[in-house]
Design brief:
Layout (H helix, E strand, L loop, with lengths): L2 E6 L5 H12 L4 E6 L6 H7 L3 E4 L4
Length: 59
Amino acid sequence: MLSIIIPKFSEPGFLDKCLESIRENSDSIEIIVCNEESNDDTGFITAEYNALFISSPAS
């Protein structure tokens, strides 16, 4: 199994395009999105692409 880890910190528009591109190539890739205190819809976008969402605690 291939896993891809994507660090995320408030980059609007990037995550949706990134996840879409990965899913177009394979449904069997594990995607892990590491949220670094983003204040956008990262969790909802991640769920749309069946990816694992991990949120780091606030510093």
